[in-house]
Amino acid sequence: MPLRLPDKLPAIKILEDENIFVIDETRGHAQDIRPLQLVVLNLMPLKITTETDLIRLLSNTPLQIDVTFMKLKSHTSKNTPIEHMRQFYVSFDELKDRRFDGLIITGAPVEAYRFEDVFYWDEIRTIFDWARTHVTSTMYICWAAQAALYHFHGINKSHMPKKIFGIFPQEINPEYENSPLFRGFDYTFNMPHSRHTTNSIEDILSCKDLSLLASSEITGPSIIMEREGREIYVTGHFEYNPDTLDGEYRRDLGKRDDVDVPLNYYRDNDPQKEPLVTWRAHANLFYHNWINYYIYQQTPYDITQIR
Fold it and tell me: Which of 67, 101, 61, 130 is CA-nearest to residue 295?
């Protein structure tokens, strides 16, 4: 089954050109199936790019999924056309009485700020709490993962002297190598990372409610789970496409002194050569496993029964 998306969403044409199977709402209504209901709170500035990156991974499943895009009332995007936001995004106030099988909250370019100094902090804390009673499983990515760990457990981030930037091998904690989230995985896997802050492995291990599933010495914790998968925290970016880190590197080149060439990304670590894509297979498998084992196998058929 394909991903079911709003009519005329720009990602549809992009992904069809990549031979990825998606359908629009009009065609999807003809299928007599209870689609999974997934909502994405997209906090990234280039929203169409992030939409496409996530949809590319979510499409790799035999299940039909309805995708809704959420926006914050307290923040207006400056990098995405207002017409796009009006057509494809719904505010939290319009969604708060609904229940969803899954929720993804993306990273955001606000990691230099204290959490309390982010101007939409109060609204996003409300969404974090709402998700615990209205969503079967929530995936928090990058800054959202750090923010949720701070909100729920008081675990703070720390700033790094140099940006964690590149493709880094992650090791699965042997205690969780049989987790459904890692079915089909190798013992180590690559994941893109792009952030100036990190969390302490010791802080995660000292919290009895959290399970550290994967990590590395360079990146720190990379995948953390809570409440048997009701919350999954991912500090990296499985969703990045092959050119994302290249774009970030060239954007910051000569403008920042805390960003080096992304490690393990370009062939021979030479930015004049093409990127090597070494994370895509595990990325697709990760999202497939999340959708199958932590949403589809857990969520009630009557979506109003989600608690």
Answer: 101
- Locate 88 and state its tokens: 């494809």
Residues marked active site are found at 142, 237, 239
pLDDT tens string, the chain, 307 residues long: the values are 455 667 777 877 776 676 555 555 554 444 445 899 999 999 998 889 999 999 999 987 878 899 999 999 877 777 777 888 888 999 999 999 999 999 999 999 999 999 999 999 999 999 999 999 999 999 999 999 999 999 999 999 999 999 999 999 999 999 999 999 999 999 999 999 999 999 999 999 999 999 999 999 999 999 999 999 999 999 999 999 999 999 999 999 888 877 889 999 999 999 999 999 999 999 999 999 999 999 998 999 899 999 8
**Helices and strands per DSSP (H, E), number in the chain:** 10, 12
